[in-house]
Amino acid sequence: NQLLGLLTTSGLIALSSSGVWMWYKRREVGTWGFPEPLRHGPLVWTVWWIILALGIAMPLFGGSAAIVFLMDRWGLTTWVHRMKRYSPNSNWPRRI
Question: Model confidence over 29-43: pLDDT tens digits?
Fold first, then answer.
């Protein structure tokens, strides 16, 4: 039983690490490498309705999704814009 838990944990750690490593290798130099967000359209509204329905059906998920949304909307974007403003060059974040 402990060996099975060890193998599962090792696999999850390897999966997480390789995902970050592959993202780092494939992104463009000097950028985060994230795709542009979808702004409008039926797909965006469908995803929002599904998240809302799941948030009502599972309140813990709804609370977590609301916290992530608020952090993304107010926290992370403010930090990135502040770092861009004080960056010595326009290629922030830069590859070291």
Answer: 777 777 777 677 788
